[in-house]
Predict the 3D structure of the following.
Amino acid sequence: MRVLYLYKDYYPILGGIENHVKLLAEGLSALGVQTQVLVTNTANRTVDESIGGVPVLKMARQVNVSSAPVSMPFFPAVRRLETGADIAHLHMPYPPGELAQLLMGRSRRLVATYHSDIVRQRVLGALYRPFLWQVLRRADLIAVSNPVYIQDSPFLRRYSEKCRVIHFGVDLARFAPTPEIQQQAAQWQARYPGQPLILFVGRLRHYKGIDVLIEAMRQVENAHALIVGIGPMEESWRAQAQTAGVTDRLTFLGEVPD
């Protein structure tokens, strides 16, 4: 069996969907399934590499439109790699990826994992909507992580019979409390003695709600919030924390290793 994963980014870029796709690709590969990942590169050059035993093709990126990278070589690559593939597994939303699937998709079956609606980009959302409908109609199965999505999303409701709730998996070995990890955890706790720690890990995007956490920290005196991750809202949220007077109880750490 051949499975092709389609998304915009992949490791070493850190993010929930990126980690999820990596876990799936490496997990299936370990089971003997022939897997490949097709994404865009962060630069205007194509890179063909192996990550964790999985072939990863990162196509040259020309421009970013909102948060969506656009790569013209991505389109013919979809056609070439999907030809003969048993399953193409598309992770949404990624508008150029959905468009490429519509124009160039050749796999025998299409699985679409629907992570969220696009809610803020009104103009781009209006342009995106027609081919979003077409991709969902073409999909043989639509995977969602939460049954609430099926009822709340106007796009998923129409295709609810195709939807399946498949919760995200976790590689438990990554979280095993080794002596080294326990030592590092103790060092972090020693930095903030006697204080409960509030930890956020993720991309700093508007829908993650860090603005709510910052406001909440105004009412929390004996605790410290640690924000792990980077993203387009970082500077705005740093300024908000400064204005709210909580910089002594909230720290932005940027990217950190596992």
